[in-house]
C-alpha cells in the first residue's frame, strides 16, 4: 500500500524531543516498514497549532488526496492529535478523505476504523485530544489572569519608554533610556497644553526625537496608554475571540511599575484629548 505521512509540531512543542519532527519521522517510517507500506510523500507543518486547519502542508495534503491520480490510500500520523486537535475537523476531513478512498491511521494509537469498536476508540482519542487542548487553554488563561492580578507582564512588547525586566520567573517593566522617558513626558506635556497629534508629531520629527519617524497614530497610542501612569491593564480583549471586553472585565493594577507621568499630567492631557476627539487630532 502507498501512503503519505503527516508530521506536525507546534511552537510550544519544538523543544519536546519525543514530539520533534525527527522523532515522529523515525516512528512513522519504522511503523510503515513493519506493515510493508511504501511512503510516497511526506508533509510537515512546523510551529503550527492543530487547533485550526489553517496549516499550509495540511491543506496541501488534503488537496492532493482529492486528486484522481493521488497515488496513495492512507495518511499516517504519529498520534491523532498531530492530524488535528479539533473534533469537528477530525469529522469533516476524515469524511472527506473517506470519500476519496483515503483513511487516516496513527502509528502509536492503532485502531480498526472499519469496525464499530475501532470507530468508538478513535472517536474517544479525538475527544480526549480536544479536551486536552481546551483544558490547556483554560489553565493558561487562568495562569495569565493570576499573573495580571499580581501586576506582572502577560506577553507582548514593552511600551516605548520602558523595557521588560525579569523578576525570577515573572516579567515587569522598568524605565528605558532617559531620552525615551523624556520624549514620553514631552508628548503628554504638549498634549496638556492643547497641542494636537499632528502638531506634536511635527515637533518630534523636527527634533529627531528617538531617531524615528513619528505619526499622529503613534502619538495617540502613547497618550492613551495608561502604562505611562504606572497602571497594568489586562483582559481588554477576549484572547479567544479577539473581541473587546467590557471595562468591568478588565484587570487594572495601579503602581505595577515605575510611572513616567503622574495622575495630574495624565488627567490634564486626557481632558484636552476629550475636547479634541471629534476633530481627530487636527
Keyword list:
elongated; 9 helices; single chain; 282 residues; alpha/beta; 8 strands; two-stranded antiparallel ribbon; four-stranded parallel beta sheet
In total, the number of strands is 8
What is the H/E order? Answer: EHEHEHHEHEEHHHEEH
Number of helices: 9
> What percent of residues are in strands?
15-25%
Overall, the morphology is: elongated
- Fraction in helix: 40-55%
Separation of the first and last Cα atoms: 70 Å
Low-confidence stretches: none
InterPro entries: DNA_bind_recomb_sf, DNA_bind_recombinase_dom, Recombinase_CS, Resolv_N, Resolvase-like_N_sf, SSR_resolvase
Keywords: DNA integration, DNA recombination, DNA-binding
Pfam families: Recombinase, Resolvase
Protein name: Recombinase family protein
List the helices and strands and how they pair.
Layout: E1 2-9, H1 21-35, E2 38-46, H2 56-65, E3 74-77, H3 80-83, H4 87-99, E4 103-106, H5 116-149, E5 162-167, E6 170-175, H6 178-192, H7 197-207, H8 216-223, E7 232-234, E8 251-253, H9 263-276
Parallel strand pairs: 1-2, 1-3, 3-4
Antiparallel strand pairs: 5-6, 7-8
Helix pairs in contact: 6-9, 7-8
Amino acid at each position: 500500500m502507498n501512503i503519505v505521512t503527516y508530521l506536525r509540531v507546534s511552537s510550544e512543542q519544538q523543544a519536546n524531543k519525543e514530539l520533534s519532527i525527527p522523532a515522529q519521522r523515525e516512528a512513522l517510517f519504522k511503523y510503515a516498514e513493519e506493515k510493508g507500506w511504501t511512503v510516497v510523500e511526506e508533509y510537515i507543518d512546523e510551529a503550527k497549532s492543530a487547533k485550526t486547519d489553517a496549516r499550509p502542508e495540511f491543506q496541501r495534503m488534503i488537496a492532493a488526496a482529492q486528486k484522481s491520480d493521488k497515488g496513495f490510500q492512507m495518511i499516517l500520523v504519529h498520534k491523532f492529535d498531530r492530524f488535528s486537535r479539533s473534533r469537528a475537523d477530525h469529522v469533516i476531513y476524515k469524511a472527506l478523505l473517506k470519500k476519496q478512498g483515503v483513511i487516516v491511521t496513527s502509528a502509536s494509537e492503532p485502531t480498526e476504523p472499519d469496525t464499530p469498536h475501532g470507530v468508538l476508540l478513535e472517536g474517544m482519542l479525538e475527544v480526549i485530544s480536544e479536551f486536552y487542548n481546551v483544558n490547556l487553554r483554560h489553565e493558561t488563561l487562568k495562569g495569565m489572569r493570576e499573573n495580571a492580578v499580581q501586576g506582572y507582564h502577560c506577553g507582548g512588547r514593552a511600551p516605548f519608554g520602558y523595557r521588560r525586566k525579569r523578576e525570577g520567573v515573572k516579567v515587569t517593566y522598568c524605565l528605558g533610556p532617559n531620552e525615551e522617558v523624556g520624549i514620553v513626558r514631552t508628548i503628554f506635556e504638549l498634549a496638556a497644553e492643547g497641542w494636537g497629534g499632528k502638531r506634536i508629531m511635527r515637533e518630534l520629527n523636527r527634533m529627531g526625537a528617538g531617531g524615528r519617524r513619528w505619526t499622529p497614530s503613534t502619538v495617540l497610542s502613547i497618550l492613551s496608554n495608561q502604562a505611562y501612569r504606572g497602571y497594568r491593564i489586562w483582559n481588554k480583549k477576549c484572547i479567544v475571540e479577539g473581541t473587546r471586553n467590557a471595562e468591568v472585565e478588565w484587570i487594572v493594577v495601579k503602581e505595577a511599575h515605575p510611572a513616567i507621568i503622574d495622575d495630574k499630567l495624565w488627567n490634564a492631557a486626557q481632558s484636552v484629548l476629550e475636547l479634541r476627539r471629534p476633530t481627530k487630532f487636527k
